[in-house]
Specification:
- By secondary structure, the protein is mainly alpha-helical.
- Helices cover 77% and strands 0% of the residues.
- Helix 1 packs antiparallel against helix 2.
- The protein is elongated, with a radius of gyration of 22 Å.
- The termini are far apart.
- The N terminus is likely disordered.
Length: 155
């Protein structure tokens, strides 16, 4: 993937565990003190979205969503990582929506252009899987009906 789409390398490059631990410790320290800065929240969300574990990506997307809703001046910087997080979770409609918002603001953004290609591939792959499932279900249904018809004919 990275050789074809070098600007989407973030999609497959997690932080080292110790790097993520530093971001988590800062966030937890601020939360314990009663006030988490937007920057600490963003930094943790960024690290979580880059992770390979689904539950961490979900948490990162949630944090980014909070920032996006609460901090209008920080929305633009959230867009790419919201799109990336949703892409990694297989939420291609949401990924496309956030990525398109970013591309509308920054049409020459190479990361967003590259991510757009990945999203389109994901949508196409999902479509092929859906078609295969529908085809398999139709074939199974046909076999069941044929079996029932054959069984009735023997009576």
């Amino acid at each position: 993937m990275s050789s074809e789409l070098p600007y989407a390398l973030d999609a497959s490059t997690p932080l080292a565990p110790e790097e993520l631990a530093v971001l988590r410790a800062q966030y937890d320290k601020e939360r314990a003190a009663g006030h988490v800065t937007v920057q600490s929240k963003f930094n943790l969300a960024w690290g979580l979205v880059k992770d390979g574990r689904r539950e961490r990506v979900v948490e990162g997307v949630s944090l980014l969503g909070e920032i996006y809703r609460a901090e209008p001046l920080r929305r633009r910087e959230c867009l790419y990582y919201l799109a990336l997080g949703h892409y990694k979770l297989g939420n291609f409609d949401d990924a496309k929506r956030f990525n398109d918002l970013l591309l509308a603001k920054e049409p020459n953004n190479l990361q967003a252009q590259s991510l757009s290609q990945l999203i389109e591939r994901g949508v196409a792959k999902e479509g092929y899987v859906g078609l295969a499932l529908v085809g398999g279900a139709a074939a199974l249904g046909g076999l069941l009906i044929a079996g029932l018809m054959r069984g009735r004919g023997r009576r």
